[in-house]
Amino acid sequence: MNHSIKLQLTPVYIKQAPLITLLINGKTIFNDRLTNIIDLEHALQFDRLLQVKIKRSGRTKSIIDSDPENGFTISKLNINGVEIKPDIGSYQCTNNDYIEPHVIHGKRFTLNGEYCLEIPHYTLRGHIMHNLGRFDINGQHYKYCFFGASMTAYDFTLGIPPIHGKQNYANLFIQQMGGVNLASGGQSTQEIFETVYKYLKNNKVDVCLVQLTGAVTRQVKNANTKEIYRWSPHLNKNLDHVDEFTKLKLKNIQEFFVYLDTSPIIALQIPEYKKLIAYAENRGSKIFFISHYSDEYQLFKQVIPNNMAPYFEIDYATKYAKDNHGHANPEEQENYSQRLIDFVRGKNIK
Predict the structure, then answer these.
(1) Distance between CA 159 and CA 162 in Å, rounded?
(2) pLDDT in tens, 107-158
(3) What mean pLDDT value characterizes the chain?
(4) What is the CA radius of gyration of the chain?
């Protein structure tokens, strides 16, 4: 998978510039004194892990006395179009006079040491585990097709309390605009991606409306038993087994998600989003992704703005949302259905 990294380093010094070595996945990109601001852009291929290391050396007692602020700042860090906060990485301070080795977080560093940022690639490929028969069909043609999980397939009669006579946003949309709803509850974004690929392989859709689940929810495959199931880092289930999709223990995945925001994870997945968009376009389909998580929506809107449907606004503080695992209430579903109808009509897709 092709990835792009943009990095800006800014020196801070009076007379002697800091000595900097930058390595990306083990390859030396820069190794010199950082005399001026540098903007680096690096393209690389990898499927497992991104590792960025920035080593600073040469801070002596003389520099400590005459230029204590001598160092560097990670001014910008962008991965596949996603702005990343440098402080999610760690800086191991070593080989400094007067100071014991220790770890800090930030973007501005003065001490000798090494900054390290490691981001695992959590693939968006998986297996279809729900209603596979719905996708083993050929020759269908719909103007609109919904793919997604429980938000898109929601049944109000099964909620708390049960509500009759109400429909989810996708079914409301279809009542006015036509189409088909192929969403199934319990899916992760990986499985949703697989359903889009499989359906478009042998069928025609003008507009695919694809609901995303949260980035922290994953489909995992036990490397020993081959069991496949939906998993969240908030669950302490079988943490010692290896996930065959990522080649990582669930414990490692859990630790990364618990302590960091999701922007680094999504950043490494952006090429997979673009690959699915291109796959659909090659088959005459336009994809619009639906997100109901504000931070993730804003991120996607920056990187793939032409493939984002309107934000699905849900008040997670309501009693209904709390009692029903964060699902939208009837009014929110109805409001979003109308927003989506207005959106596609505005696109005037033929």
Answers:
(1) 5
(2) 999 999 999 999 999 999 999 998 888 888 899 999 999 999 999 999 999 9
(3) 94
(4) 24
- Provide the phi-psi class of 106: left if phi over 0, else alpha when psi is between -120 and 50, else beta: left
Query: Does residue 350 carry a pLDDT above 60?
Result: no
> What is the residue type of 157?
T
pLDDT above 90 for 255: no
Kindly provide the residue ranges of all beta strands, DSSP E only, lying in the chain, ordered along the sequence.
2-12, 19-24, 27-33, 38-45, 49-57, 71-79, 82-83, 90-93, 102-104, 108-109, 113-120, 141-147, 180-181, 204-211, 218-221, 228-231, 242-243, 248-249, 286-290
- CATH number assigned to the domain with residue range 2-120, chosen from the 4 options 3.40.50.150, 2.170.120.20, 2.60.60.40, 1.10.10.10: 2.60.60.40
Local structure of 40: helix, strand or coil: strand
Q: Give the model confidence (pLDDT) of 218-235 as tens digits.
A: 999 999 999 999 888 877
* Nearest alpha-carbon partner for 197 in 247, 98, 297, 272: 272
Q: Which tokens in the block code for residue 323?
A: 């009692």
Distance CA 220, CA 223 (A): 9
Task: Check if the beta carbon of residue 154 is closer than 8 Å to that of residue 328.
Answer: yes
Name all contacts of 319-324 with Cβ < 8 Å and 24+ positions apart. Answer: 320/159, 323/159, 323/160, 324/159, 324/160
Q: How far apart are CA 323 and CA 325, in angstroms?
A: 6
CA dihedral of 233, 234, 235, 239, whole degrees rounded to 10:
40
Q: Strand 204-211 relative to strand 141-147: parallel, antiparallel, unpaired?
A: parallel
Return d(Cα 220, Cα 213) in angstroms, integer: 15
Q: Which CATH superfamily is domain 132-215+262-347 in?
A: SGNH hydrolase (3.40.50.1110)
Altogether, the residues listed in the chain come to a count of 350
